Amino acid sequence: MWLLRAxxxxxxxxxxxxxxxxxxxxxxxRLFAVGDATDVKETKLGYLAKAQVCHGIHQGKTLx
Length: 64
Description:
Layout: H1 7-11, H2 46-63
């Protein structure tokens, strides 16, 4: 999730964000999150976030 210009949205979300297997934020059909902001049980390393982003892009294209 890019946080740029999202302050009102961020104040309404609990952190860490709970995501489903497609990295969709629970309760928000069109909001995806990756990396340190999520509750994914993994070591929080940058290269792993990059892998999540690739998966998220694929899922996003599928939804569009």
